[in-house]
Amino acid sequence: MRNEIIKPSYLISTLLKDKINQMLNNKKISFLILNQKNYSETIICKSCSTVLKCPDCKISLSFKKDQNEAKCHYCGYSVKKEELTCKVCGSHDFALFNLGLEKLNEEITDLFPNSKIIQIDGDAVNNQNEYDKTVISIEENQEEIVIGTNILLDLLDYENIGLVALINADNILNNSDYRSSQILYQNISKVINRKNIIGVFQGYNLDHYSVVDALKGDFFSFFNKEIEFRNNLKYPPKYDIMRLIILGPFNEMYHAAYYFRKVYKSIFDSESDILGPVYLKRYRGVQLVLKTNDFDKASKLIGEVEKKFIAKNVTFNFERYPKLFY
């Protein structure tokens, strides 16, 4: 995909297009999986295809158009677009790639206008009855190309499925989630363990250990590298990770967040860490990310600090092992 980065259809490589044609000729169904439902923007170096990440959290940065900057959802680190520099090659030339099922559907429809194409996601199949109808249509070979998210990986038992392609498979690594490598390893493993299915894995940085070890079926190698990565950055399983979302009047919630951070740092040792506060527009609140090996102590502190601010209409929402950080 690196060599095809400037082509109009950057979601569908030449190899994948050829494999889909092969499946159509053989009356087999192609599953195209893109684990991104909506459009999102990933910041990629045009020179070496490196994805821009937070220097502290090693989580990919998200581009904020209204602020013209790249920002970390964990710790709040930010950098203006004009100041972006690739840490690998030193280039200042970056591209913002829009990825999503909507875009994939558009490209597939343009490339295969006469094929039977269906999209499976929460909007297209929003109840059990519709889901059952969709599964039956796959069983009875009424579809030729199926587009969807990772939920398609649970439908690989049918013999008429000949191709499974993970589109921009490594894009999962750019999510604001410390478990991204584990998810990618699992996704690839689910495909390569199917004897009668051809697997195509597209991406710009497929030399990541989660991809290499999954293709080799070497779980122990992956495990050792992943544990080292998580321990170095104080992620589970060695450390608890929690997020605290503080809601209330704008000034008061920031006051509470900074107060909590100050108290947290004063009573926890260097083995613990706290990131933020970062404002989350979807919650209209500020987020703190806590990393510690003393859950009981952290939860007790949250309760005590919340009592201090309850008269100022500030509330604390606490979540252990959150799935999202934005």
Characterise this structure.
The chain has 3 domains: 2-39 and 100-228, 3-Layer(aba) Sandwich (Rossmann fold); 40-97, no CATH class; 240-320, Alpha-Beta Plaits (2-Layer Sandwich), CATH 3.30.70. The longest helix has 18 residues, at 250-267. Helices cover 32% and strands 23% of the residues. The strands form 4 sheets. The chain has a 5-stranded parallel β-sheet with strand order 7-8-1-9-10, with helices on both faces. The chain has helices spanning 14-25, 101-111, 128-139, 180-192, 209-216, 219-232, 250-267, 295-309, and strands spanning 29-33, 40-45, 62-64, 69-71, 78-80, 94-99, 117-120, 145-148, 161-166, 198-201, 240-247, 273-280, 285-292, 315-320. By secondary structure, the chain is of the alpha/beta class. 33% of the residues are buried. The protein is elongated. The chain starts with 13 loop residues before the first helix and ends in a 6-residue tail after the last strand.
For this entry, give a set of tags.
single chain; 326 residues; alpha/beta; Rossmann fold; Alpha-Beta Plaits; 3 domains; five-stranded parallel beta sheet; four-stranded antiparallel beta sheet; 8 helices
